[in-house]
Amino acid sequence: MAASDHVSILAARMAITHRQLVEASDRATDAELLELPKPGLAPIAFHLWHAGRWADRWAEALRSAAGSPAPQRWEREDMAARWGFPAELGKGDTGMELPEEQAALLPFPGHGALTTYLRGSFNDLEQAVGALDDESILRSADNLLGETAPLLDSLIRHLSHVSRHLGMVEALRGLHGGHGTATT
Length: 184
Known about the structure:
two-stranded antiparallel sheet; 2 strands
Protein backbone atom coordinates (compact mmCIF):
# COMPACT_ATOMS: atom_id res chain seq x y z
CA MET A 1 0.00 0.00 0.00
CA ALA A 2 1.42 3.39 -0.91
CA ALA A 3 2.01 5.92 1.86
CA SER A 4 -0.54 8.28 0.32
CA ASP A 5 -3.09 5.49 0.79
CA HIS A 6 -2.16 5.47 4.48
CA VAL A 7 -2.71 9.22 4.73
CA SER A 8 -6.10 8.97 2.99
CA ILE A 9 -7.31 6.09 5.13
CA LEU A 10 -6.07 7.70 8.35
CA ALA A 11 -7.60 11.08 7.47
CA ALA A 12 -10.96 9.51 6.59
CA ARG A 13 -11.14 7.38 9.72
CA MET A 14 -10.07 10.31 11.89
CA ALA A 15 -12.80 12.52 10.40
CA ILE A 16 -15.45 9.87 11.12
CA THR A 17 -14.32 9.40 14.72
CA HIS A 18 -14.14 13.15 15.29
CA ARG A 19 -17.63 13.60 13.82
CA GLN A 20 -18.96 10.93 16.19
CA LEU A 21 -17.40 12.70 19.18
CA VAL A 22 -18.87 16.05 18.13
CA GLU A 23 -22.29 14.46 17.61
CA ALA A 24 -22.08 12.88 21.06
CA SER A 25 -21.42 16.30 22.54
CA ASP A 26 -24.25 17.85 20.54
CA ARG A 27 -26.75 15.17 21.61
CA ALA A 28 -25.95 15.35 25.31
CA THR A 29 -27.64 17.80 27.61
CA ASP A 30 -25.51 19.97 29.84
CA ALA A 31 -26.63 17.84 32.79
CA GLU A 32 -25.59 14.61 31.03
CA LEU A 33 -22.20 16.08 30.13
CA LEU A 34 -21.48 16.96 33.75
CA GLU A 35 -23.10 14.07 35.61
CA LEU A 36 -20.62 11.92 37.47
CA PRO A 37 -21.19 8.20 36.84
CA LYS A 38 -20.27 7.76 40.49
CA PRO A 39 -18.46 10.10 42.85
CA GLY A 40 -14.89 10.74 41.79
CA LEU A 41 -15.23 9.41 38.22
CA ALA A 42 -14.88 11.66 35.20
CA PRO A 43 -18.04 12.82 33.41
CA ILE A 44 -18.76 12.66 29.67
CA ALA A 45 -17.44 16.21 29.28
CA PHE A 46 -14.00 15.09 30.44
CA HIS A 47 -13.74 12.36 27.80
CA LEU A 48 -14.80 14.76 25.05
CA TRP A 49 -12.50 17.56 26.21
CA HIS A 50 -9.58 15.14 26.60
CA ALA A 51 -10.01 13.91 23.00
CA GLY A 52 -10.14 17.51 21.82
CA ARG A 53 -7.02 18.45 23.78
CA TRP A 54 -5.01 15.64 22.20
CA ALA A 55 -6.22 16.62 18.73
CA ASP A 56 -5.18 20.19 19.52
CA ARG A 57 -1.71 19.08 20.59
CA TRP A 58 -1.27 16.91 17.50
CA ALA A 59 -2.40 19.72 15.20
CA GLU A 60 0.20 22.02 16.74
CA ALA A 61 2.95 19.39 16.42
CA LEU A 62 2.13 18.60 12.78
CA ARG A 63 1.93 22.27 11.80
CA SER A 64 5.28 22.92 13.49
CA ALA A 65 6.89 19.95 11.76
CA ALA A 66 5.58 21.24 8.42
CA GLY A 67 7.17 24.64 9.05
CA SER A 68 3.87 26.45 9.74
CA PRO A 69 3.85 26.73 13.52
CA ALA A 70 0.67 27.91 15.19
CA PRO A 71 -0.22 27.53 18.85
CA GLN A 72 -2.90 25.17 20.00
CA ARG A 73 -6.46 26.53 19.91
CA TRP A 74 -6.57 25.91 23.68
CA GLU A 75 -3.70 28.35 24.16
CA ARG A 76 -4.43 30.95 21.50
CA GLU A 77 -8.03 31.34 22.70
CA ASP A 78 -6.97 31.23 26.39
CA MET A 79 -9.60 28.60 27.01
CA ALA A 80 -8.31 27.44 30.38
CA ALA A 81 -8.87 30.92 31.79
CA ARG A 82 -12.18 31.39 29.95
CA TRP A 83 -13.52 28.11 31.31
CA GLY A 84 -12.07 28.66 34.79
CA PHE A 85 -9.81 25.63 34.69
CA PRO A 86 -6.98 25.20 37.22
CA ALA A 87 -3.37 25.71 36.18
CA GLU A 88 -2.55 22.01 36.56
CA LEU A 89 -4.32 19.83 33.98
CA GLY A 90 -2.06 16.79 33.88
CA LYS A 91 0.44 15.79 31.23
CA GLY A 92 0.41 18.20 28.30
CA ASP A 93 -2.57 20.01 29.85
CA THR A 94 -4.77 17.21 28.49
CA GLY A 95 -6.06 15.64 31.69
CA MET A 96 -3.69 12.69 31.21
CA GLU A 97 -2.46 11.45 34.60
CA LEU A 98 -4.84 13.85 36.36
CA PRO A 99 -6.38 12.04 39.34
CA GLU A 100 -10.00 11.02 38.64
CA GLU A 101 -11.22 13.12 41.56
CA GLN A 102 -9.66 16.26 40.03
CA ALA A 103 -10.92 15.42 36.54
CA ALA A 104 -14.43 15.05 37.95
CA LEU A 105 -14.27 18.56 39.41
CA LEU A 106 -13.14 20.44 36.29
CA PRO A 107 -15.60 23.29 35.55
CA PHE A 108 -16.63 22.23 32.06
CA PRO A 109 -18.78 24.63 30.06
CA GLY A 110 -22.08 23.66 28.51
CA HIS A 111 -22.27 21.56 25.39
CA GLY A 112 -22.28 24.62 23.08
CA ALA A 113 -18.83 25.83 24.14
CA LEU A 114 -17.46 22.30 24.42
CA THR A 115 -18.75 21.33 20.97
CA THR A 116 -17.28 24.51 19.47
CA TYR A 117 -13.88 23.63 20.93
CA LEU A 118 -14.12 20.05 19.66
CA ARG A 119 -15.08 21.13 16.15
CA GLY A 120 -12.18 23.57 16.03
CA SER A 121 -9.48 21.29 17.42
CA PHE A 122 -10.62 18.32 15.33
CA ASN A 123 -10.75 20.47 12.19
CA ASP A 124 -7.23 21.77 12.91
CA LEU A 125 -5.91 18.22 13.21
CA GLU A 126 -7.77 16.95 10.15
CA GLN A 127 -6.30 19.78 8.07
CA ALA A 128 -2.81 19.06 9.40
CA VAL A 129 -3.14 15.33 8.65
CA GLY A 130 -4.51 16.10 5.19
CA ALA A 131 -1.37 18.12 4.45
CA LEU A 132 0.93 15.16 5.16
CA ASP A 133 2.72 13.55 2.26
CA ASP A 134 4.28 10.18 1.52
CA GLU A 135 7.57 11.08 3.16
CA SER A 136 6.31 12.86 6.26
CA ILE A 137 3.77 10.21 7.33
CA LEU A 138 6.49 7.54 7.50
CA ARG A 139 9.26 9.54 9.22
CA SER A 140 9.98 9.15 12.90
CA ALA A 141 8.99 11.97 15.20
CA ASP A 142 8.17 12.72 18.82
CA ASN A 143 4.92 10.92 19.67
CA LEU A 144 4.02 13.62 22.25
CA LEU A 145 4.74 11.11 25.02
CA GLY A 146 8.49 11.64 24.99
CA GLU A 147 9.27 8.78 22.63
CA THR A 148 10.21 8.61 18.98
CA ALA A 149 8.04 6.58 16.63
CA PRO A 150 6.92 6.63 13.00
CA LEU A 151 4.34 9.38 12.62
CA LEU A 152 1.82 6.99 11.07
CA ASP A 153 2.06 4.72 14.12
CA SER A 154 1.67 7.66 16.50
CA LEU A 155 -1.40 9.00 14.71
CA ILE A 156 -2.98 5.55 14.59
CA ARG A 157 -2.32 5.31 18.33
CA HIS A 158 -4.02 8.70 18.77
CA LEU A 159 -7.02 7.49 16.76
CA SER A 160 -7.24 4.35 18.88
CA HIS A 161 -7.00 6.45 22.04
CA VAL A 162 -9.81 8.84 21.12
CA SER A 163 -11.91 5.89 19.92
CA ARG A 164 -11.68 4.41 23.41
CA HIS A 165 -12.90 7.73 24.82
CA LEU A 166 -15.75 7.69 22.30
CA GLY A 167 -16.67 4.29 23.70
CA MET A 168 -16.65 5.69 27.23
CA VAL A 169 -18.88 8.58 26.14
CA GLU A 170 -21.31 6.18 24.51
CA ALA A 171 -21.37 3.90 27.55
CA LEU A 172 -22.05 6.84 29.85
CA ARG A 173 -24.75 8.13 27.49
CA GLY A 174 -26.28 4.66 27.58
CA LEU A 175 -26.77 5.08 31.32
CA HIS A 176 -29.09 7.98 30.40
CA GLY A 177 -30.96 5.93 27.80
CA GLY A 178 -29.05 7.47 24.90
CA HIS A 179 -27.75 5.60 21.89
CA GLY A 180 -24.25 5.44 20.50
CA THR A 181 -22.78 4.79 17.09
CA ALA A 182 -22.73 1.01 17.48
CA THR A 183 -25.80 -1.19 17.58
CA THR A 184 -26.34 -4.67 18.93
